[in-house]
User: Fold this.
Amino acid sequence: MANPLNAAITEPVATHRTSIIWLHGLGADGNDFVPIVPELHLPGNLGVRFVFPHAPVRPVTINGGMAMRAWYDVRNMDLRREEDAAAIEESASIIEQYIATEVNAGIPSTQIILAGFSQGGAMALHTGLRYPSKLGGLLALSAYLPLPERFLNEASPANKTTPIMMCHGTYDQVIPVSAGKQSCDFLKQTGYTVNWHSYPMEHSVCLEEVQAIGAWLQSILG
Assistant:
């Protein structure tokens, strides 16, 4: 099981009814998105427990081989070239252990949302759409769907109708908005329902986006 100490955790004030597992981006750690919790303005009666796992430390090729927290290596500025499939699969297994921890705590998988920013958003899509039980929702911020050529063979029917929200900055120079939009369009063409939002920002998060996320979370959890 995933070590619960290997994550930043925000417990609900009310009874724990829902879990949001939120995955950070390259070079950050689980603490990166802890400050977003109060900004989402979720009603206390939703009983949301936030789990912010820390990715493993690994060398990252595009950063000169420097070791940092990363869900997978990035070997090329073109995200579709030389994808690190082995590490993506390894990280998906880690994330599934965090989901299992919440299920073992009595939370149905349909009340578990997988969210993430950048690499974390890519992992949320990769893991969530392959997960064998239905999840409550998938949130991918400034992200894209990795390993699309394998997707149709590996996707789980259980999450075919799971709500998906994707948000992206139109001035993103790290993961171009075109990469996010291509993934969104690919999923839509494959029969998924994706709630797409774009904002005039770079590789970051803005207030208007956070407000939209809060409203979306309430709509699927309420």
About this structure: The mean pLDDT is 95. The chain has six helices and nine strands. Strands lie at 7-10, 18-23, 48-53, 57-60, 66-69, 112-117, 137-141, 164-169, 194-199. Helices lie at 36-39, 85-104, 119-130, 151-154, 177-189, 207-221.
